[in-house]
Design brief:
The chain is an alpha+beta fold. Helices cover 36% and strands 35% of the residues. The strands form 3 sheets. A 3-stranded mixed beta sheet has the order 1-2-3. A 3-stranded antiparallel beta sheet has the order 4-5-6. It starts with 17 loop residues before the first helix and ends with a helix.
């Protein structure tokens, strides 16, 4: 069978639309709907002769699919569902760029932008120094493949460790920016709303002007880790502006 059989109007048939039968006697729309239900097919158009024989099948599909396999899928679907055998030479495939829902596109854009501008936290460690009652605080940050590791020595007290972590984090951010534009004003632990936070203040230097940068982070795993995140919070917008300059 190489063509459609004329469809007879059946007003009493369940689920049948007699008006559709009259306007589409050869069942072309049914065939096109079938093809667009196949995986990867975006649209389909079936062209017939006045006698109902299929002369052309045009399909628009997503990129990445094998055209030969898609043609076989089309042949099989038409034969299995409609009893219609179509020569593969009558089937033409056009492919377009990948089509994604707008929500997926927005997520990809947001993720790409965040990766471009964000300085990423890699780790923070605290270990004993050679001198007694002293510790070494090591902070590792990264951005666009560049990794900076900065180590600061401090007295083994909670406040001193927090300040050392903040100094190391700010120095790492400054190295990643590459223009020596940041200076630490101070870092301290504060308690508000029944929670503990690290509050950081830094100076962002631009020519003769200086801008006060502040950031906070809740203490969860450790105060030193929160100090690093507070520095990143304080310098996030500054870092983005410096990279765009």
């Amino acid at each position: 069978m190489t063509g459609f059989s004329p469809r007879q109007p059946s007003p009493q048939g369940p689920g049948r639309d007699p008006q559709a039968d009259i306007s589409d006697p050869w069942g072309v729309r049914r065939a096109e709907n079938l093809l667009t239900s196949l995986e990867g097919v975006l649209s389909a158009r079936v062209v017939t002769t006045p006698l109902g024989e299929v002369s052309e099948v045009h399909v628009l599909a997503q990129s990445g699919l094998q055209p030969k396999q898609l043609v076989r899928n089309i042949e099989s679907a038409l034969l299995a569902h409609l009893g219609l055998k179509v020569d593969h030479r009558k089937i033409s495939i056009a492919q377009t760029a990948e089509v994604k829902p707008i929500e997926a596109l927005e997520r990809d854009v947001v993720r790409e932008r965040s990766l471009q501008r964000t300085i990423l936290f890699e780790g923070v460690t605290v270990q004993s120094a050679r001198r007694p009652h002293r510790v070494l605080v090591q902070v590792t940050l990264a951005s666009q493949g560049q990794v900076e590791v900065v180590e600061e020595e401090a007295a083994d007290t909670p406040r001193a460790r927090v300040e050392a972590a903040a100094r190391a984090a700010l120095a790492a951010v400054d190295r990643l920016l590459g223009d020596h534009s940041l200076a630490l004003e101070g870092a301290r632990m504060v308690r508000e709303f029944d929670r503990e936070f690290v509050f950081v203040a830094a100076q962002g230097l631009s020519g003769r002007d200086a801008l006060l940068l502040t950031g906070t982070a809740e203490i969860r795993e450790s105060a030193e880790r929160a100090a690093v995140f507070a520095v990143m919070d304080a310098t996030n917008r500054w870092s983005e502006l410096r990279r765009q300059a």
